[in-house]
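Feature request, filed as a ticket because there's no other form

It would be nice if the structure record came with a short human-readable summary line next to the tokens. Right now we just get the raw output. Example of a typical job, pasted below so the devs can see what we mean:
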Amino acid sequence: MIQRSSRNNEPGIALIAVVLIIAVLVAIILEFNYESRIKLHLADNFRFAAKALSCGEAGIAISMAALRQNDDILGDEKLSPFFSGKVQIPIEEGYCTISVADESGKININALKPPDGRLMRYRIDQMLRLVDLLNYQYGEHAPISYSLIPAMIDWVDSDDDVTVLPFVKRDNAGAENDYYQELTEPYSCKNAPFDILSELLLVKGMTTEIFNGRPGNEREGIEPVDGIRQFLTVYGDGKININEASTTVVQSLSDRIDYHLAHSIVEQRKFGRYESVAQLKNVPGMTPQIYESIRGLVTVKAEDRYYTVTVTGVAGQFAQKIQVVLKKNRQKVRVTPVLRREL
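Raw output as currently delivered:
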């Protein structure tokens, strides 16, 4: 048998080697191209994320400037739409939306027991009425216990004595450090004022549903329920600004105020903001007895105003939400940030 020389196979081997080398080079080039595209995409994402944050910062600056120049941006028909959270304000390559809430129309849970140690009975009564109003939405099932109120007081006060409300017949005791230390994941009772409202989720008796509310489901016949958070604040001197209060908060002021009167008080603002507390006397359904029972609890202009500003900055596909609490000192016309967090 005649054997072929190995040299006859060399061109084929060389061709295979060249093909393999080209294949490796193509793979390297494709991998490099993929990594380059990933890096470009990440760089582009970083740029838009930074732009979204800048749009959010711009929204905060706009809010602070507006508050400095206007005593009542929410009562101004020309300005209020821009701070409703529904208007897109263009900023360079993106935009922002701004939502402003005045905290003076809410119940200050830090004011239930001031530092001097006195229980503020009329404010506690208001909180008890708020519990009744919220429980009423649930029908027969009333998930919010009256004990939540003394538990709030115990969270704030500096002592370790459990608060008992003798004027409440049932569920009238709060909770101190012993209760919280016996939980599966124990923590300490704060014994200091609330810094942020979400701290309420740590207090005995509070649940996520009570705090945030319950969405409705028409198909299953479930009615929506308001969360307690929208009626409470941790800022202010404790007086309720009737120019900002919701119908529910107004109704909680006195057991003599029914829904219709509370609704009338709020509706009256459509014809002009209250310039004095005495103007409440002119609201249909208001009686001298009701007016006398609430006139010391309300105001039309808080000395220091606190606003929760929620800004969403958008650029490309990126959105950045920032929430700040701004304090406006009426005498010095100064606006200062009290709290800031990125959501």
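Something like this underneath would help us a lot:
The first strand starts at residue 89 and ends at 91.
The longest helix spans residues 10-69.
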